[in-house]
Amino acid sequence: MNFVNKCLQKCAFFFIFGLKCPYFSIFPPMQLPKYKKKKRVKLKKCQEPGCGREFWGHPIAKYCELHRDIKARQKPKKIPDSLEMRNMVFKHGYSETVDVQFKCCLSGCDNVFTVKMFPKQFIYPRFCLEHRNDFKRNNYLRMQKKKATV
């Protein structure tokens, strides 16, 4: 038997007879703190646009009782871009497919590109193949400004 077991047996003997065990000073009983869960509740404001209600909630809560359900929240409406921003509306009366040439509408670009016109379709690209992309158009305009300043 090891030393610890002997000490425990002797402590039990002293405990039975109501005496103070001298071994407790060597090995005091270990006491662990009991964990108590804190309820962290704060006064918060609802993050839903236009609501602003105050409610008591957990620190990470964002919405009041009314807006906690996703179905009750507003969906941000996407404003569609103007159709004529990137395309042109070309009204025609063609009854068969025709190839028509257009000049690029980007300022400073003189490229001519061919568009196939279809019957009962009126929306066609405004820019040549080199400038159909927003990035390419902005980059071209930036380069033109650089050339003009130099």
Helix content: 10-25%
Structural class: alpha+beta
SS summary, helix count = 3
Task: Count every beta strand, where a strand is a DSSP E run of 2 or more residues.
Answer: 6
What value does the Rg take, in angstroms?
A: 40 Å
From N to C, what is the helix and strand string? Answer: HEEHEEEEH
In oligomeric terms, what are we looking at?
A: single chain
> Which stretches are low in confidence, meaning pLDDT under 50 for 5 or more residues running?
none
Overall shape: elongated
Main sheet: strand order: 1-2
Q: Approximately what portion of the residues adopt beta-strand conformation?
A: 15-25%
**Overall pLDDT:** 83
Q: What distance separates the N and C termini?
A: 95 Å
Quick one: biggest sheet?
2 strands, antiparallel
List keywords for this structure.
150 residues, alpha+beta, two-stranded antiparallel sheet, 3 helices
Can I get a quick summary?
With 150 residues, the protein is of the alpha+beta class. The protein is 23% helix and 17% strand.
Topology:
Elements (H helix, E strand, L loop, with lengths): L2 H14 L25 E4 L8 E4 L25 H4 E3 L8 E6 L8 E6 L5 E3 L8 H16 L1
Antiparallel strand pairs: 1-2, 3-6, 4-5
